[in-house]
Amino acid sequence: MRRIIGTVAIPPKFHVSGEGKAAEKSNRLQELEKKYRILVENIGEGFAICNKNMVVTFVNDKVCETMGYSKDEILGRKVDSFFEGKSKKKLRSELKKRKKGKSSRYTVAVKTKKGEEIFASVSGVPLVDREVKFNGSIAIISDFTERKKLEKKLEKRTIELEKEVKKRTAQLSSYIGELPLQRRGIDWPRRFTMV
């Protein structure tokens, strides 16, 4: 019979110590974070995170592209600094909902770095900490400026067509008024005969 002298090494994946579990958990978290970062940067929509003071702490490249700012120009600013007038009021109202733990979807106009107005649909959800206290907000931002422009063109064209219909109707009414009664399909004797 042979005698074995020494120790047997256990492969790392079977290691059961506390340090091993923590390292494995850390690796899984890093992988998960990497996957989420890929998702957030490539979803095709704007993605932003604000802290509990409504200061922007994260934006993806789509937000920067849409608004014309660099990440450094956006990060650290109050989110409402990008809005004016009614849109600023709307945003503040929606952020109050977030602080109460409510999600919502709304539309606002946003000023780009060049001063142009873009229209955005925002889906906002609250962030909470471990004690389930408000800790900020996440928003997915969809630029629908082109659709809004098309809607305005359609609305303008609809008004123009309604005016044209009224004009043509008036013309037809005046033509009908000029026709003799019998040509208008009115048979006077039968129509006004008393029974």
Overall description:
- It is a single chain.
- By secondary structure, this protein is α+β, with helices and mostly antiparallel strands.
- Among the domains are: 45-143, Beta-Lactamase (2-Layer Sandwich), CATH 3.30.450; 145-179.
- Helices cover 46% and strands 21% of the residues.
- The protein is built from six helices and five strands.
- The chain has a five-stranded antiparallel β-sheet with strand order 2-1-5-4-3.
- The radius of gyration is 33 Å and the shape is elongated.
Short description:
By secondary structure, this protein is of the alpha+beta class.
Q: Termini distance?
A: 134 Å
User: What is the tally of helical segments?
Assistant: 6
What is the overall pLDDT average?
A: 82
The amount of beta strand, in percent, is: 15-25%
DSSP, total strands: 5
Largest sheet: 5 strands, antiparallel
Would you state the CATH class of the domain at 45-143? Answer: Alpha Beta
Any idea what the CATH architecture of the domain at 45-143 is? 2-Layer Sandwich
According to CATH, the fold-level topology of the domain at 45-143 is Beta-Lactamase
Uncertain segments are 1-16
Query: Which structural class do you get from the secondary structure elements?
Result: alpha+beta
Strand order of the largest sheet: 2-1-5-4-3
